[in-house]
Amino acid sequence: MAIIVQKFGGTSVADLDRIRSVAWRVKAEIDKNNQVAVVVSAMAGTTNQLVEWARDIGPLHDAREYDTIVASGEQITVGLLAIALQNIGIDARSWLGWQLPFRTNDVHSSARIEDIDVSMLKSRLAENQVAVVAGFQGITDTNRITTLGRGGSDTSAVALAAALDAERCDIYTDVDGVYTTDPRVVPKARKLDTITFEEMLEMASAGAKVLETRSVAMAMSHHVKLQVRSSFVEEDGTLVIEEDDDMEKQKISGIAYSRDEAKVTLVGLPDRPGIAATVFGALADSHINVDMIVQSASPDDSRTDITFSVAALDADKAVQVLEQQKSDLAFDRVIADTNIAKISVIGTAMRSQPGIARTMFSVLAEKGINLHVISTSEIKISTLIDADYTELAVRSLHDAYGLETS
Ligand code: ASP
Ligand code: MG
Questions:
Q1: Which listed ligand is nearest to 135 at the C-alpha?
Q2: Residue-wise pLDDT tens digits, 294-347
Q3: What is the pTM of this model?
Q4: 244-406: CATH superfamily
Q5: Strand intervals (E) in 142-260
Q6: CATH 3.40.1160.10 fits 3-174, yes or no
């Protein structure tokens, strides 16, 4: 018998009716003669409420207690789903993170899974009992409850699928798959039947919110077959596959955008060896993740500008960190701009098809959109533009690459 891991997100367990219909989805897999482990999130909105309470009671709260609070949302949904399953004649029980356990490190509120003990769970599955597992949570060596970071239950599901050597991990969500771009921006966007892990990873980190980035990276390294599908409709979703299984792709796969970025520019830095190391070293020491970087050539070899992007939430902190280094770095000014968006064109087709970058740049130029920063990987081209042009850029690119037709 194959083991299937099903994961249901917050909107799929948002109320009791939704939970009852999730039970039927689980039954459908059982009826196909599979063993099923289900990972669930908290009801939509619950975790936000819990985070708010934790912040309100003490802005500088003890991170261990924060985790105790925010992990509780999943405790409710596992219990409810186990009962909903029993109600339709299916043997099921709930498992909290500590009961398996999901061992994590002790970085509270963004813990990493180190090991999952699936021995007990496996023997229950073998007795045809459905395991309803709380996503998002784990336990440290010292028996403190941890959470994996917001959106972390995707990672719980993939990690469990890897540990169980599952046949597939189905991520049920409120969209019916991965689209060529956000259908709210481009109604003609098309659902992809397949996408490669690498493309999915780039899409997720470029701003497509359908899967948590960390879960995709984990699925890729553990070869977990992932499927994204809707809990609201019956249709097949999008299968995330290895590149070898993909036919020679002619087209790019998708266009992602993110408005959650900020651009930081250091003006008038002395152009000498070690300057970039000092700048990015200081940012790294403050745990600020930098995404794109450009350094302009200095006209007279004496002064240069460096522009980079960070998460919008980190913009003020980045400026502060750099201001503190001013005596050392001797720059003129540091400017942060949060009114920008990152637009990314993604596809393994880039490896073999010339001209993809040219199309991107000429389309944006035709629309009069200025590019502040450009960066590329083997299968992605990203650029920062003024946020006001986000929709226009995404729509024009979607058209230019002919993505509405397969
Ligand atoms: N309930 C958690 C959150 O809202 C985990 C998840 O849904 O993935 O972040
Ligand atoms: Mg999610």
A1: 1
A2: 988 777 778 999 999 999 999 999 999 999 999 999 999 999 999 999 999 999
A3: 0.85
A4: VC0802-like (3.30.2130.10)
A5: 145-147, 168-173, 194-196, 226-230, 238-241, 254-258
A6: yes
